[in-house]
Design goal:
Elements (H helix, E strand, L loop, with lengths): L5 E4 L4 H5 L7 H8 L3 E5 L11 H14 L2 E5 L10 H20 L4 E4 L2 E2 L5 H22 L5 E4 L7 E2 L2 H10 L6 E3 H7 L7 H15 L1 H5 L2 E4 L1 E5 L2 E6 L10 H10 L5 E4 L4 H16 L2
Parallel strand pairs: 1-12, 2-3, 3-4, 4-6, 8-9, 9-12
Antiparallel strand pairs: 5-7, 10-11
The chain binds zinc ion (ZN).
Zinc ion binds next to loops.
C-alpha cells in the first residue's frame, strides 16, 4: 500500500520515449518530474511474461531505490466470463502477469475481468469468481505473497465491472483488491460523478464492504472520459472542460478521509495530467 498519495502515468510517457529512455531509466525520470508511481503496461501479453526476468528485476530495484511504486496493468486478452478454453487461457495469462509483477516488485496487477456473453450475468459472475479463485490458489502454491490481483471497474455496461461486482469479487478473494477507475464508473453510469457527494458515496461503500485499510490504500485510475449510452468512448485530457469527472471533487474526498491512494493517470497526456492531479491534491491538503 502506498504510504502517501502517489501519482504516476499508465505506461512510459511519450517524452521519455523521445529521449530514447530505457525502462530502467523510467523511475529516475519520473522522480525528476515529481511523480512517484508507475503502471507498467503488460496489456498485449500472452501466456508468458514478455519481459526478461533480469529486466523486470532491474526495474523493481531501481524503482525501490528511487521510491517509485510500481503496479502492472495485465493483458487485455483475458475474459473470465468466457468458455472453458478462454477461461483456461485467461487464468494462464493472469498468472504470467502476476509472476512478472513479483519480479518487478509491483504491488498489484490490474486487469479487466471480462465481457458478458449471452448467458445470464449471475452465471457469468460466478464463473469469473471461480476462475479468479484458481488464480489465487496458484499464487499461493507459487509462494507469491506480495502481489494483489486488482479487478478494475469497467466503462461499458457490456463488461463485468460495476462497482458492486468488483467489490463482491474482492470480498470473496483474499488476494484481490479493487482497482477503481473513476472515469470508467463515470461513463458506465452515464455521468455518475456530478458532486463531491457522488465520490464520497463510492468511498464509503468501499469502506463499508472491504474495511478502512482497503479504502485508505486504494488503487485508482483517473482520466476524464467521453461516453455514449454504450459507455466509455474515449479518454480526454484533464483540461477538457466539456467532460468529467472532475479530479477536484475526488481530491476533496481524499483529504476528508485521509486516504493514501495510488492514482494512475490514463489521460492522453499521461504524466502531465498526473502532475496536475498531484498539484490539485496538494492544494486541497494545504487549504
Ligand atoms: Zn484498465
Amino acid at each position: 500500500m502506498a504510504d502517501r498519495a502517489r501519482f504516476g502515468p499508465a505506461g512510459v510517457p511519450p517524452t521519455f520515449r523521445l529521449m530514447a529512455a530505457t525502462l530502467a531509466d523510467v523511475p529516475k525520470l519520473l522522480r525528476e518530474e515529481g511523480l512517484d508511481a508507475f503502471e507498467y503496461q503488460a496489456v498485449r501479453w500472452g501466456a508468458k511474461p514478455q519481459i526478461k526476468r533480469v529486466d523486470a528485476e532491474k526495474l523493481g530495484l531501481i524503482a525501490r531505490e528511487k521510491d517509485v511504486l510500481i503496479s502492472l496493468h495485465g493483458s487485455y486478452f483475458m475474459n473470465f466470463c468466457g468458455n472453458e478454453e478462454i477461461m483456461k487461457a485467461s487464468i494462464q495469462r493472469l498468472i504470467a502477469c502476476v509472476t512478472a509483477a513479483e519480479w518487478m516488485k509491483a504491488y498489484i496487477v490490474v486487469f479487466h475481468p471480462g465481457f458478458y456473453g449471452e448467458r445470464p450475468r449471475i452465471e457469468m459472475f460466478s464463473n469469473c469468481l471461480e476462475g479468479l479463485k484458481e488464480v489465487a490458489n496458484t499464487m499461493e502454491i507459487f509462494g507469491i505473497k506480495n502481489v494483489k490481483i486488482g479487478p478494475e471497474t469497467m466503462g461499458k455496461p457490456s463488461q463485468l465491472g460495476s462497482l458492486d461486482e468488483i467489490l463482491s469479487l474482492c470480498e470473496e478473494i483474499e488476494q484481490a483488491q479493487p482497482a477503481i477507475d473513476w472515469g470508467h464508473l463515470h461513463a458506465r453510469n452515464m455521468g455518475r460523478f456530478k458532486t463531491v457527494d457522488d465520490f464520497r458515496r463510492v468511498i464509503q461503500e468501499i469502506e463499508r464492504r472491504l474495511g478502512s485499510e482497503a479504502v485508505k490504500g486504494l488503487h485508482c485510475h483517473f482520466t476524464k472520459v467521453e461516453f455514449t449510452d454504450k459507455g466509455e468512448r474515449r479518454h480526454r485530457i484533464l483540461g477538457d472542460v466539456k467532460h468529467g469527472p472532475e479530479f477536484e471533487m475526488l481530491a476533496k474526498v481524499i483529504a476528508e478521509f485521509k486516504l493514501r491512494p495510488t492514482i494512475i493517470s490514463e489521460s492522453p497526456v499521461l504524466d502531465l495530467d498526473a502532475l496536475k492531479m498531484r498539484d490539485i491534491l496538494q492544494k486541497e491538503l494545504s487549504s
